[in-house]
Amino acid sequence: MGLQKAEPVLVLASSSATRRALLTRAGLMFEALPAAVDEAALKEACQAEKIPAEDAAIILAEAKAERIARRVPDALVIGGDQLLVCKMDDGTERWFDKPTDMAAARRQLQALRGKTHRLVTATVAWRNGARIWQDVTAPRMTMRNFSDAFLDSYLAAEGEVLLGSVGAYRLEAMGVHLFSRVEGEHSAILGLPLIPLLGFLRQHGVIDG
Fold it and tell me: Cβ distance 33 to 7 under 8 Å?
């Protein structure tokens, strides 16, 4: 017998295989519905308006949850988003996107090498036409000062699967070799913080306490 109640239906507003796997391993039953949201345009607008990364991540997560919640208003819809933010050598804060190809992944990892970046991870819940919960957390990731030779070996070993990651790495796989220090909940680093989310689901009566 599982911990989850039959109602409300739980929906994940995401096409992310990693987020789906996290919920599945936690024993949750849910439907995954990708949200058609222009993330690039939303990010551009947030940056143009100098909105902090934490607030921008909430805006993006909410846009996804709201889009799906309008299709299934009785369901409890979970939306998530993650921004990689790093302070560069010139003091500016740069937001990174998923690399478009392997050359871009190499340049991105070279830019992050030897620095600490934040994975600003937002989660939003919608039901019955309103946002009922939100959470934002920012694990800190410090990359070691690896050599170009190591970087090339890493990219060859992991391949184009890296293009699906905002950091051009998978901590749950060979990406762990890139780091000297990792601070934060593992599931948050992967894109969906389970500890606060499960706490909310218990309070909302979706799972047993």
Answer: no
